[in-house]
Amino acid sequence: MQVFHQALESDPEFRNRIARVEAYTARHALLNLTARSAGPVVIPVVVHVVYDSPELNLSDEQVRSQIDVLNEDYNQANADRINVPSVWSSVVGNAGIRFALATTDPSGASTTGIVRKQTTLTSFSAGDDGVKSSAAGGDDPWPSDRYLNVWTCNLGGGLLGYATFPLQVASRDGVVILASAFGRQGSAEYPYDRGRTMTHEVGHWLNLRHIWGDTTDCSGTDYVDDTPNAGGPNYRTPTFPHVTCGNGPNGDMFMNFMDYVDDAAMIMFTQGQCARMAAALDGPRASVARGA
Length: 292
Ligand code: ARG
Ligand code: ZN
Ligand code: CA
Prior knowledge:
alpha/beta
């Protein structure tokens, strides 16, 4: 978000692109278009496993466990969805998006969709995006108009993961996930061992903002009507209801994938969020949704 807001402030072209995407997204929601009307969407994923020590060279199984989580969470098939407070059961959304490890690489050769890359670096940072560059000790992306690029590695600064928004930066598009917050086995560590970091980051990649609107004075918005405004991020496993910004009696929708709670506590998208993601898939992400 820091990088995103800095670009909004300093890059008028970026500001224009984002304004156009928001205008388009609002129109898309009004017309009630959905990507699903055009048939099921499958997004080809390439996972770049960047490791300096064997523990970070995650197994194919662990990678597949992460893809499974995405397919559950983006198809309202996560077992813990039953824990959504009943006041919100009518707004829970089904994104209807499927994810599959790529079966063809950019040159057309067959692939597992998993690329392993040994590095000498013990950690990467979001600031310089090093993990996305072979020259910097990471691994170059596959074309971002055809693949969702995912990197898993060690990250500094307590960061669990980070993402780019649609039209932010094509050459470094994708999501990065800390190896100990990736998938739901192997190196994944409690309380980030249910694969929800990637569910959250892919939400950003599909144009979702944080549920509290990225301000802490109740002035922000996530551009979604069926998520209550909230005063800031929630952490750990909050008790319902947590009232902020005059959003009583139900309070913050802290169990939303776009809050900051523990993996076990984030369990839902809303229909409004799904409409935003559908707009992204019909618009700036359309070429990826068509498949590689
Ligand atoms: N970018 C956020 C961070 O690094 C992701 C938070 C994901 N939360 C989670 N429970 N997995 O803090
Ligand atoms: Zn986030
Ligand atoms: Ca909202």
